[in-house]
Design a protein that fits this description.
- The chain has 380 residues and is α/β, with parallel strands linked by helices.
- The protein folds into two domains: 193 residues, Glycogen Phosphorylase B (Rossmann fold, 3-Layer(aba) Sandwich), CATH 3.40.50; 171 residues, Rossmann fold.
- Helices cover 44% and strands 16% of the residues.
- The chain contains 14 helices and 13 strands.
- The strands form two sheets. The chain has a seven-stranded parallel beta sheet with strand order 3-2-1-4-5-6-7, with helices on both faces. The chain has a six-stranded parallel beta sheet with strand order 10-9-8-11-12-13, with helices on both faces.
- Strand 8, helix 8 and strand 9 form a beta-alpha-beta unit.
- Helix 3 packs across helix 5 and helix 11 crosses helix 13.
- The protein is elongated and about 65 Å long.
- It starts with a strand and ends with a helix.
- Bound molecules: ligand GMT.
- The site of ligand GMT has 20 residues, from helix 1.
- InterPro entries: Glyco_trans_1, Glyco_trans_4-like_N, Glycosyltransferase_grp1, Thiol_BshA.
């Protein structure tokens, strides 16, 4: 199949999922065309099956807001015609499903019928999409998609609750690629740069937005390090980062917290981590938690949204109510203070992660693509 993937190219989870999906599809012989405004961060190499087409939005002084959706839908039309693309897969409803629908309509006018799969990722429904300024356009473009998927059952339920959606929503969870190369000597070398042998390594990775409850992470870690020698790795960048740095200074733990900024070394950092913190206000799935679990790192998370579908309470980690810092710290200490308990949680985390192996999840997308293409080309 020839598939155009529209996504955000940044460090956010939806862009990561879209990129990893595209790369694995290409690996399985499909021709993939990424269409977005910058080369996606996880798209290191292009190959005969992997193409990238940049959407340019020329600056024009008359416009207070440059019309990205217009440029994206025009680019989609051009690329579908040029490469004879069979299907559009848009990740994150805003504004991708809307731009995709416009492209479909323009192509229809020229006698080209192309199906569109829309994947809902989370904040496109629960935070941004739900805003009255966007809601009618988001509802419309979801209902006009040929196939709709969501990354968790919780997000599917939220979508039906918040919008008037008449379409079936298929749940296809996020996934990870297991069996990444593990180089033990490189891991122990890197670890020794970050922490002393006796210190536990606690990690958080995100885009440091309010929804991630960054101050909770610092406060949980503050309690952990009072009981157990530990270091905190804060990976990512975003609006809450400076506040977090200030809080560390206020609490006198700045020497125990390392801020990495955006990093392409996520696998390396996770490979020597002992615990992952994700106390988010809302999280449709929690890909970062799954990525940690794939490196045998147990997770302390909130129980909001889709997190209970990924992090199993008392098995791969623990879940608590949003904001229950005391319980999260207690559970973290319970896991970290005992070598045997930590080893059990680490093994469990990996076992749970195995259920989300890309090899099991990818065929679910392929099946929906095939059905969408067949349905689109059926005679009326
Ligand atoms: O919240 C983020 O980290 C970014 C955001 C995005 O859309 O890029 O992530 C959402 O999509 C991810 C991939 O499907 C999910 O794993 C995250 O849970 C979801 N974030 C939220 O719901 C807050």
């Amino acid at each position: 199949m020839k598939i155009a993937i529209v996504c955000y190219p940044t460090f956010g989870g939806s862009g990561v999922v879209a990129t990893e999906l595209g790369l694995e599809l290409a690996h399985r012989g499909h021709e993939i065309h990424f269409i977005t405004y910058r080369q996606p961060v996880r798209l290191a190499l292009l190959s005969p099956n992997v193409h990238y087409h940049e959407v340019n939005v020329p600056e024009y002084p008359l416009f207070h807001y440059q019309p990205y959706e217009l440029a994206l839908s025009s680019k989609l039309v051009d690329m579908v015609k040029l490469y004879k693309i069979d299907l559009l897969h848009v990740h994150y409803a805003i504004p991708h499903a809307y731009a995709g629908y416009m492209a479909k309509q323009m192509l229809k006018d020229e006698g080209i019928i192309i199906p569109m799969v829309t994947t809902l990722h989370g904040t496109d429904i629960t935070l941004v999409g739900n805003h009255p300024f966007y809601k009618p356009a988001v509802s419309f473009s979801i209902n006009k998609s040929d196939v709709v998927t969501s990354v968790s059952q919780s997000l599917k339920d939220d979508t039906y609750k918040l919008f008037n959606i008449k379409k079936e929503i298929h749940v296809i969870p996020n996934f990870i690629e297991l069996n990444k190369h593990r180089n033990e000597s490189a891991i122990s070398c890197q670890r020794s740069v970050m922490a002393k042998k006796e210190e536990r390594i606690v990690t958080h990775i995100s885009n440091f937005r309010k929804v991630k409850r960054i101050p909770d992470i610092i406060k949980i870690f503050y309690k952990i390090q009072q009981q157990i020698p530990a270091k905190l790795m804060m990976v990512g960048d975003g609006p809450e980062k400076v506040k977090a740095e200030n809080l560390c200074a206020e609490l006198g733990i700045e020497d125990k917290v390392i801020f990495f900024g955006n990093s392409n070394e996520i696998d390396q950092i996770l490979s020597y981590s002992d615990l992952f913190l994700l106390p988010s206000e809302t999280e449709s799935f929690g890909l970062a938690a799954l990525e940690a679990m794939a490196w045998s790192v147990p997770v302390i998370s909130s129980n909001s949204g889709g997190l209970p579908e990924v992090n199993f309470d008392g098995v791969s980690g623990y879940l608590s109510d949003v904001g229950n810092i005391d319980e999260m710290a207690e559970n973290a200490i319970k896991i970290l203070e005992n070598e045997t308990t930590l080893a059990t949680f680490k093994a469990n985390a990996l076992d749970v992660a195995k259920q989300f192996d890309i090899k099991n999840i990818l065929p679910l997308y392929e099946k929906l693509y095939q059905e969408a293409i067949e349905k689109t080309h059926q005679p009326l």
